[in-house]
Amino acid sequence: MNQELLSVEEAARILGIKPSIIRMWIFQRRLRKVKLGRSVRIPSDFIEDLTKSNTHFKKPGRRHPMGNKTTPSEKVAEREKRGGLNQQWFKTESRCLWLDRFMYKGVYYRTKPYLTKTEAKDALNRHRLEVRENRRRFTNSLRRPLRSIVRVAMTSFSLVSRTQGGSI
To answer: What residues contact 83, with CB distance under 8 A and at least 6 apart?
Structure first.
């Protein structure tokens, strides 16, 4: 196995991306590496395979460097499955409401990948009603003891003032 090894900077220059992205891919085990002391080297044949494949290295995101890109038709189908909801809106709403998750041994698992638009709106309305009802119950639970304390204090004060013969 006599192959040329490239440094991170050389591999980044060949691929046309930043060295930090190469380091990130190595850390995520997306690229093969060879450790030479404290430095990290990448096999040149692997970099050549990457350059031969028609992949875009500008923004790797969470994709594999070999390029598992989704086509526009797949994106449209995904959006329709969500009921036309914006992906960011869905993420924030589902994260706030925890509607599509269940907990098992301290770990949250997803029950279904997406909510439809009507399901998400109904769930949000149910959640808001629950919060409103809980607030109402809490404030009423605070008011009841105060009313009874005030009544007891008023009756005891009036009894004391009557026995002493004074007026208020």
So the answer is: 114, 115, 116, 117, 118, 119, 120
